[in-house]
Amino acid sequence: MQSLLRKSLIVSGIALSAVTFGQNASADSSDILRWQTVNGIVATNTTVGTGAGLVNGGPTPWSTLDGHVNVDLAKGKINFDVRGLVLAGGNSIGTPGAVTQVKGTLVCDTNGSAGDTILVDTPLVDLSEQGDAQFNGRVAMPVVCATEPDVAFLIRVGAGKWIANATVLR
Asked: Bridge-partner residues for 62, per DSSP?
């Protein structure tokens, strides 16, 4: 019997545009995915996904203090929180700068083996002046998120660029 959380490494660095995600999940409809932490984007202007689901990275590095992500694929529930999400470069270093809202994005089929990558977004939530944000709610969950082995989770700004990603799947 397969474990609820079959782990496989997401290709890091050069193989996926120099972005390190940590780990990803091989999912089925009963899986609950739990990422242990959230990290800010280090390799800026990189991409995740393929085709219509391609997501571009932000132009400036970001850092975080902490965070976590839980996704219940069967129920379409997403819970994420991030603490201390702030710019790690530029004149607004150490602050969220002009970013006042973020959204979580479950990226399903990152390599596009079943077609274009599918993005599942949460609604926008407020990002505090200290870089804290959280979401707990339901979203429509496409089947591909449970059937494809390559899944990632990003924190994105309203305009869609990703600035942080979930890492270390438990």
From this structure: 87
What gap in Å lies between CA 69 and CA 74, rounded to an integer? 16
Q: How far is CA 160 from CA 115, 122, 157, in A?
A: 21, 12, 5
pLDDT above 50: residue 73: yes
Q: Residue 141: CA atoms inside 13 Å, Cβ hemisphere, count? A: 22
| Contacts with 56 (C-beta within 8 Å, 6 or more apart), sequence order | 45, 46, 47, 160, 161, 162
Q: What is the mean pLDDT of the chain?
A: 85
Q: Is beta strand 101-108 parallel, antiparallel or unpaired with respect to 151-157? A: antiparallel
pLDDT digits (tens, 9 = 90+) for 8-33: 222 222 222 223 333 344 444 458 99
Question: Which amino acid appears at position 147 of this protein?
Answer: T
How many CB atoms within 10 Å of residue 128? 13
Beta-bridge mates of residue 119:
107
pLDDT score of 30: 56
- Please report which residue ranges of the chain form alpha helices under DSSP H: 144-147
Give residue 142's Cα distance to chain centre: 16
Residue 159 burial (C-beta neighbours within 10 Å; 0-12, 13-18, 19+): exposed
> Rounded to whole angstroms, how far apart are CA atoms 97 and 116?
32
Q: What is the pTM of this model?
A: 0.82
